[in-house]
Amino acid sequence: MIGQAFQQLKEAGVLGINNRNAEYIMRYNPRSLYPLVDNKVLTKRLAKQYGIPTPVLFHVIENYGSMKNLKTMLEDIKEFVVKPASGSGGSGIILIAERTRNVFLTQSKKVVTLEYLSYHISDILSGIFSLQGHEDHAIIESLIHPDQVFSAVTYQGVPDVRIIVYRGVPVMAMVRLPTKDSDGKANLHRGAIGAGIELGTGQTITAVHKSKIVTHHPDTGNPVSGLQVPHWDTMLSIATLATDMTGLGYIGVDIVIDRDRGPVLLELNARPGLAIQMANKSGLLKRLEDVDAAPDGIFTTPEKRIAWAKENL
Predict the structure, then answer these.
(1) CA distances (Å), origin 302, targets 93, 95, 122, 218, 253
(2) Rounded to an integer, what distance in angstroms lies between the CA atom of residue 305 and that of residue 313?
(3) CA 231, CA 219: separation in Å to the nearest integer?
(4) Contact present, 301 and 191 (Cβ < 8 Å)
(5) Helix intervals (H) in the chain
(6) Which of 1, 177, 236, 255 has a CA 20 to 30 Å removed from the CA of 89?
């Protein structure tokens, strides 16, 4: 039975975690380049060189000593995000949407104090939320105001678009929609919805929630398919450039759509998950093999890679 199930997955072109790690991540992502995507400060600096917008960086807290100036750092900032520089999966992130003289209000309406933020930043510095458990830096950056295009299928937080890029070619995409279960965070393992996106048109198709195919958002009751993602070509361009700017051949690119700035690069991931296949009802393996079999001419410019992907994938 196990052998039969494995064969069915293979025939469907589903990429498994072992195959992903051995044939794509280890082969195309040199470990020496991981810091460029694992550290969000380094990612921001690289993106700036390539003209790719990112959330505005207010402060980087590198050690416990600089925390004594936290009150001064935050004095003129009404809304902001606190996050670990090397965190993953949404862990350690606090979104501050409002403030009074003495307290702060998160996007989920939770009241926090300056002392609470200070304690949380201490946790970040200690490495509790970092990928490897090493000491980390804390980032204070601008809060994203999401475009209203996904408001009918979002619970509180900020939806983002994940695009998988292989050898500089966008091969699969989905929009991650926060739910009540995910506490407003756009992470599938926390309970967010992943809605597949058709590469050629930028429209949402099928969706997955807690490993089950769904048609409607569990909190708003609205359908999640048939939505047109705005700025789609710009988002594909940002994703494609991620390979050029990092040197990584297999990468996940997370983009948010700010209501004022348009597409903004949120972060990069050298080990993107595989649930995107369920969201698209399509296997990644076949698409990766199609890229390997593509004419050499498509790889010469980002524009050619995007055009080929929209027509063939």
Answers:
(1) 32, 34, 41, 37, 15
(2) 11
(3) 26
(4) no
(5) 2-11, 17-19, 26-28, 35-38, 40-49, 70-74, 114-126, 232-246, 276-280, 284-292, 302-312
(6) 236
Residue 181 in this model has a pLDDT that exceeds 90 = no
Q: 25: Cβ–Cβ under 8 A, 6 or more apart, which residues?
A: 250, 270, 271
For the stretch 56-89, pLDDT in tens is: 999 999 999 988 889 999 988 999 999 999 987 7
Q: Region 239-252: what's the mean pLDDT?
A: 95
Question: Which residues are CB-neighbours of 229 under 8 A, at least 6 positions away?
Answer: 149, 161, 175, 197, 202, 203, 204, 235, 257
Backbone angles phi, psi at 4, to 5 degrees: -65, -45
Angle among Cα 230, 232, 238 to the nearest 5 degrees reads 125
Higher per-residue pLDDT: 243 or 102: 243
Amino acid, single-letter form, for residue 28: Y
Rounded CA separation 163/168 (Å): 11
Mean local confidence (pLDDT), 212-218: 92
Q: Tell me the H-state helices in 39-146.
A: 40-49, 70-74, 114-126
pTM value is 0.92
Residue found by looking up tokens 């100036």 in the block? 69
CB 92 within 8 A of CB 84: yes
What is the spatial distance between Cα 277 and Cα 115, in angstroms, rounded to a whole number?
A: 42
> DSSP assignment of 248-301, as one string?
-SEEEEEEEEETTTEEEEEEEESS--STHHHHHTS-HHHHHHHHHTS-GGGGSS
Residue showing tokens 């619970």: 155
Location of structure tokens 């050619």: 304
Rounded distance, CA 17 to CA 284, Å? 11
What count of Cα atoms within 13 Å lies in the side-chain half-sphere of residue 32? 1
